[in-house]
Amino acid sequence: STMFSGIEQGPPIEVFALNKQCLEDSCPDKVNLGVGAYRTNEGKPWVLPVVRKTEISIAQNESINHEYLPVCGADAFTKAAATLLLGEKSPALAENRAFGVQSLSGTGALRLGAEFLAQKLSRRVFYFSEPTWENHFKVFTGAGFTTAKTYRYWDPSSRGIDFAGLLEDLSQAPENAVIILHACAHNPTGCDPSQEQWKQIADLMEKKKLFPFFDSAYQGFASGDPNKDAWAVRYFVERGFELFCAQSFAKNFGLYCERVGNLTIVQKDASTTAAVHSQFTLLVRAMYSNPPAFGSRIVSTVLNDPKLREEWMDCIKTMSSRIITMRQKLYDLLKKLNTPGTWEHITQQIGMFSYTGLNEAQVKRLISDFHIYLLSTGRINMCGLNEKNVEYVAKAIHAVVT
Ligand code: PLP
């Protein structure tokens, strides 16, 4: 007998199972619109040229060794990451009431923040948008949050934000509830609140004493401008909120597997910085002791060098504009085909994903009849589209909705 015989088979993770299914599909026309990774117009992964150049120079730099990093990460990295988020002129950084903790990409930053809130501040209630990135629930409950609540976000009829529903649900949240907010390029809907709507969300959260936990996985990748994509976070900081923001460098640097992330912590007052930092040190020490160095060295080298940083800015413009072009192409083709329904949302949505509004049965047919792989919710990764396959995809969508 084995002690493992009682272990139940866990459910597959949809996005990775779908990816595997697509990889195993031998149809030459197959299209992968599932997993959220950038692809070139040739359908290939892209190592940003500035990243390639920098990794070679790091590997060849004899003065760099493989000693442990500090528990909360390399200063050069956490400062660069927090500055990218909060801005060069951020008073919170200048006043030493904001700082960064290096993390295992965006997921690790969320987990670290959630662990702190649950263990050190006894927070138990969190809210996430309906729908949201599927991992929010697992990360927060895994960290010790016991009450998971949703706020309305997607309105299927308008294919946009259900803003009245969002405000109504957040207004019911108990004091101190942790509210997960997507900093930009909401995953999976591609719909962000307007600046006016962010102001209303901030008003409500201030009044109800709710804690904003931003998730920033797409800074710079969404619009091509990192400042624009950080607007909401900076606005909340300016208003005086204390908050957390999880940052991922997976998409905007194309460093998916290197697990480069940062948790930015903003407090009202610098007097709490040392104690809060020390508690993060203990949390990290118990979980994985020290963060990995390589990816974070690439990011800090690039962000801290004006010339390399310029080159990176060009790369994020290349990625974001290719996505915007594909949105327009897909929309134009569906229009030309006279595909039933409205499709304006495809060009209005922002970032990597589009919530197409296709239903589960239509998604099933796209997969089985056309070898086009997308999530059952109808979410597509726009980066999977290119000049060669966009017409095939548009015709397939047309076929399954008519
Ligand atoms: N948060 C959101 C909304 C995401 O879409 C992602 C990636 O898909 C992440 C966080 C974290 O990704 P990673 O852990 O790879 O940085």
UniProtKB/TrEMBL annotation:
<keyword id="KW-0963">Cytoplasm</keyword>
<dbReference type="GO" id="GO:0004069">
    <property type="term" value="F:L-aspartate:2-oxoglutarate aminotransferase activity"/>
</dbReference>
<dbReference type="InterPro" id="IPR004839">
    <property type="entry name" value="Aminotransferase_I/II_large"/>
</dbReference>
<comment type="subunit">
    <text>Homodimer.</text>
</comment>
<dbReference type="InterPro" id="IPR015421">
    <property type="entry name" value="PyrdxlP-dep_Trfase_major"/>
</dbReference>
<protein>
    <recommendedName>
        <fullName>Aspartate aminotransferase, cytoplasmic</fullName>
        <ecNumber>2.6.1.1</ecNumber>
        <ecNumber>2.6.1.3</ecNumber>
    </recommendedName>
</protein>
<dbReference type="InterPro" id="IPR015424">
    <property type="entry name" value="PyrdxlP-dep_Trfase"/>
</dbReference>
<dbReference type="GO" id="GO:0005829">
    <property type="term" value="C:cytosol"/>
</dbReference>
<dbReference type="InterPro" id="IPR015422">
    <property type="entry name" value="PyrdxlP-dep_Trfase_small"/>
</dbReference>
<feature type="domain" description="Aminotransferase class I/classII large">
    <location>
        <begin position="29"/>
        <end position="397"/>
    </location>
</feature>
<keyword id="KW-0808">Transferase</keyword>
<dbReference type="GO" id="GO:0006532">
    <property type="term" value="P:aspartate biosynthetic process"/>
</dbReference>
<keyword id="KW-0032">Aminotransferase</keyword>
<comment type="similarity">
    <text>Belongs to the class-I pyridoxal-phosphate-dependent aminotransferase family.</text>
</comment>
<dbReference type="InterPro" id="IPR000796">
    <property type="entry name" value="Asp_trans"/>
</dbReference>
<dbReference type="GO" id="GO:0047801">
    <property type="term" value="F:L-cysteine transaminase activity"/>
</dbReference>
<keyword id="KW-0663">Pyridoxal phosphate</keyword>
<dbReference type="GO" id="GO:0030170">
    <property type="term" value="F:pyridoxal phosphate binding"/>
</dbReference>
<dbReference type="Pfam" id="PF00155">
    <property type="entry name" value="Aminotran_1_2"/>
</dbReference>
